[in-house]
Amino acid sequence: MDLGLEGRLALVCGSSRGLGRACAEALAREGVNVVITGRTSQDVEAAVAAITALGGGRASGLCCDVTTEAGHSVMLAEAGKADILINNSAGPPPKSFLDVRAQEWLPAMQRYLIAPLLLTQALLPGMIERRFGRIVNITSAMVTTPRPHMSVSAGSRAGLTAAMKAIALDVARHNVTINNLLPERIDTDRQVFMAKAAAERENISFEEARARQIQSVAARRLGRPEEFGAACAFLCGAQAGFISGQNLHLDGGSYPALI
């Protein structure tokens, strides 16, 4: 399927590794010119080289932190006319609510709520003017199925989900869509990190923690990053213009609720 994206420009946050990179690769394969961002120059350079080798859209890289004013400015200077915005940032470490310190809340809100909203606010006018815009927020399954050890993630990302829903209602008439991808158990470094944390928290081996991850998925396997990237690319495509304000779970069929 041709998604009708060739020549479009995408700003993909947190895309030097993991799910963000999978989304950037999928978009580049569709001929989208992608701006890769990350906080480690080595990772950014490696991602740009790999995506360039795909032979699709052009790739450029920025080593910056979207939560800072300087990082925000650098991104907009490079991709202020982006047609596609992928908001993404690595999740916080799991921690019991009673162990969360007061000073941890504001940085989390800045990273998972405020920074995506500020980028959205900056790019929306151009999208509206061009009558094409696609905003995809990579959030978490914790938005709809919060867990006790992930209150920081659930709280901040649920807030982003609510704000984006309100914005989506206002901009749909301009062919600007806003959707959220809710990953769970996609096989990236994040799942290795989470398995190590679970092993320590529950006093089990790493191998047992990984086995429990797989058993928690209805499909009885971990998701592949390229599957996640493909879903992101589709939501950005011309054919997805009637899909907006939605939460799409990518979890191997594990979400237990009806709606």
Question: Could you explain how this protein is built, in words?
Answer:
By secondary structure, the protein is α/β, with parallel strands linked by helices. Helix content is 47%, strand content 14%. The protein contains eight helices and seven strands. It has helices at 18-29, 41-53, 69-79, 102-130, 151-171, 189-202, 206-215, 225-236; strands spanning 9-12, 33-38, 59-63, 84-87, 133-138, 176-183, 247-250. It has a seven-stranded parallel beta sheet with strand order 3-2-1-4-5-6-7, with helices on both faces. Strand 2 (33-38), helix 2 (41-53) and strand 3 form a beta-alpha-beta unit. Helix 1 (18-29) packs across helix 8, helix 4 packs parallel to helix 5 and helix 6 (189-202) crosses helix 7 (206-215). The longest helix is centred in the middle third of the chain and has 29 residues, at 102-130. The chain is globular. The protein starts with 8 loop residues before the first strand and ends in a 9-residue tail after the last strand. The model has no long low-confidence stretch (mean pLDDT 96).
